[in-house]
Amino acid sequence: MSTTGLEAFDSTLQKTNIWLNDIMQELGWEGERQRAYLALRSVLHALRDRLTVEEALDLGAQLPMLVRGFYYEGWKITGKPLKERHREDFLAHITHDFRNDDRMDAEAIARAVFTVIARHASAGEVEDVKRILPAELRALWAA
Fold this sequence. Notes:
Elements: H1 7-27, H2 33-48, H3 53-60, H4 65-72, H5 87-97, H6 106-120, H7 123-132, H8 135-138
Helix pairs in contact: 1-2, 1-6, 2-4, 2-5, 2-6, 3-7, 5-6
């Protein structure tokens, strides 16, 4: 049964829900869809801003249409990639987005979202993204 009456919209809603469900499962956040959305958005923005513009576009092409929309939301390509090279700098962006959530663990969130990206994006694209990142950030990806 169609939710929206448009197959493309129904498909992207279904795919986005799969990603959010995967994040909730990875983090043990049963039924906390809003937190899962915030985790996905936060990590994608932090990651996007550390990739070259070309690689950010390549990753964006692998995302479900709805996820792609909030991935690009607010993106300014000037000054990208950010020159922050340390794990703490990356995790600080997630911590900022979860500043009102005393139950959050920025590293666990990053690892969970990276696991979900690796599950749904092509292996080649994941390797391209990891290759661009400094060693401290690559270490956040599952082996």
